[in-house]
Write a structure and sequence with these properties.
The complex is a heterodimer of chains A (about 210) and B (about 230). Chain A contains five helices and nine strands, in the order βββαβββαααβαββ. Chain A is an alpha/beta fold and about 210 residues long. Chain B has about 230 residues and is an all-alpha fold. The chains are: A alpha/beta (about 210), B mainly alpha (about 230). At the A-B interface, helix 2 and helix 3 of A face helix 1, helix 4 and helix 5 of B.
Chain lengths: ~210, ~230
């Protein structure tokens, strides 16, 4: 059997001396999406941070494509947008491309902003955009070629988005699934219809 | 969408991208850019007013005053070095995605030096003239600052990275890095003082050059490690 994209076994994690989860197992295969649900404070964000390697205090194994997780192979969109308010949307996305060492050609930034409905906002400093528009800039990273990686970790990707935005993002997610990527995301809302979607609860169903 | 181009991820792209972003950020906030420089100029102009306008007294203390003011001006800009990046999540993206983290850290520190240490170095001879610094000491002062301020910025960067997870890191940062600044201060001042008394400033300048080479090559590793911890904390 081939490796699952993400394979978590026997994960036990503490935060501030409180056990968040123990014996947590999760496998996500290629072209599968898992929606993580649970009450506030159940540890959804902590789980994503464990996977991304930003919360080292855990026991158990987390493997990405059968190997230890490496930051190059995943895209993490967290509560903090990863977007600098003083820079324009285009400058922010340019930096994200550079960070991944991408040196392809073509107007991929314009295409990504176009994709999330922000065409024409390229040069506006992000802090002058609305909350929903800033969220769209953060999520425009998913439309960059550097997002074509095995795993997406999205923490509450749908907050502050309108219906059209929600549809855009689920469209991007569906494309990634079609490209054999795997997605783990958290949301409190009903998840959009995605192929290969399952739901996993942390803590008791609310 | 354009297909991703084949080709190795380039380290140069990573370095240049970070440098470009940080310079854009710095020039996007002119007031923060001017703060350390204004501080430097104001402190220097206060000395003739507050201590003594006697040219001989001023000439005697000029190297020390210039160096201390430059050191404090450097310290002024340090606390905010990684704070905003941490708050908006760009720091965690950098730690997560950049391979190796060393390069963007070097670019970050270079950008910071270009907007603090470099203008301080260029301003120093002008302010030295105001303090009646001996003309033959101007070049050694500038050289000392050009070699010393990168060390100050890098050592300060370690302190800023270590305190990035704390809400109020200002005082702790000063306590952490000021003792480390002392050797740079002593060497820099002695170079300028030797020159103003007609001796060769080469010795302390070479020490400063050695310190700068060592700091530029090794300290970014420490900053990168501290930033990783800072991101993990919260």
């Amino acid at each position: 059997m081939s490796h699952a994209v993400l394979d978590i076994a026997g994960l036990r994690c503490e935060r501030d001396d409180r056990e968040l989860f123990a014996d947590f197992d999760l496998r996500i295969a290629a072209a599968e999406a898992v929606q993580l649900r649970g009450p506030n404070g159940a540890g959804k964000t902590t789980l994503l941070r464990c996977i991304a390697g930003m919360h080292p205090e855990y026991e158990g194994s987390i493997r990405l494509l059968g190997a230890p997780v490496s930051g190059e192979q995943l895209v993490f969109v967290g509560h903090r947008p990863g977007i600098s308010g003083l820079l324009s949307a285009a400058d922010n996305l340019r930096w994200h491309l550079d960070l991944a060492g991408w040196r392809g050609a073509g107007d991929v930034i314009g295409a990504a902003l176009d994709r999330v409905g922000l065409a024409g906002y390229n040069d506006v400093p992000c802090q002058q955009l609305s909350a929903g528009q800033q969220r769209r800039v953060a999520l425009a990273r998913l439309a960059l070629p550097t997002a074509e990686v095995p795993l997406w970790l999205l923490d509450e990707p749908f907050t502050a988005l309108d219906d059209a935005g929600l549809e855009l993002i689920s469209g991007l997610m569906a494309e990634r699934l079609a490209g054999a990527g795997a997605i783990l995301f958290t949301t409190h809302q009903a998840a959009p219809a995605l192929p290969g979607l399952s739901t996993r609860w942390i803590g008791a169903p609310a | 969408m354009t297909a991703p181009a084949a080709g190795e991820p380039s380290l140069w792209v990573l370095f240049r991208g970070q440098l470009r972003r940080d310079l854009k950020l710095a020039f996007g906030q002119p007031s923060e850019l001017a703060n350390p420089l204004a501080f430097f100029v104001v402190v220097i102009t206060l000395f003739p007013l507050g201590v003594s306008p006697e040219p001989d007294v001023l000439a005697g203390m000029a190297p020390g005053v210039l160096w201390i003011a430059a050191l404090l001006a450097t310290l002024l800009g340090l606390e905010a070095l990684f704070r905003r990046d941490r708050d908006d999540g760009t720091l965690e993206q950098m730690v997560l995605r950049a391979q190796p983290l060393y390069l963007p850290v070097v670019a970050r520190m270079l950008a910071h030096w270009m907007v603090t240490g470099l203008p301080l170095t260029l301003l120093a001879p002008l302010l030295g003239g105001m303090l009646n610094l001996a003309p033959e000491a101007r070049l050694p002062l500038m050289l000392g600052l050009a070699l010393g301020t990168p060390v100050l910025v890098l050592l300060g960067g370690v302190g800023a990275a270590l305190t990035v997870g704390l809400r109020t890191g200002g005082v702790l940062l000063a306590l952490l890095v000021l003792p480390l600044f002392v050797p740079v201060l002593i060497l820099g001042v002695s170079a300028a003082e030797l020159a103003s008394s007609g001796l060769s400033p080469t010795g302390p300048l070479l020490w400063l050059a050695a310190g700068a080479s060592f700091a530029i090559t090794t300290v970014p590793f420490a900053i990168a490690a501290a930033l990783r911890i800072g991101v993990e904390v919260g």
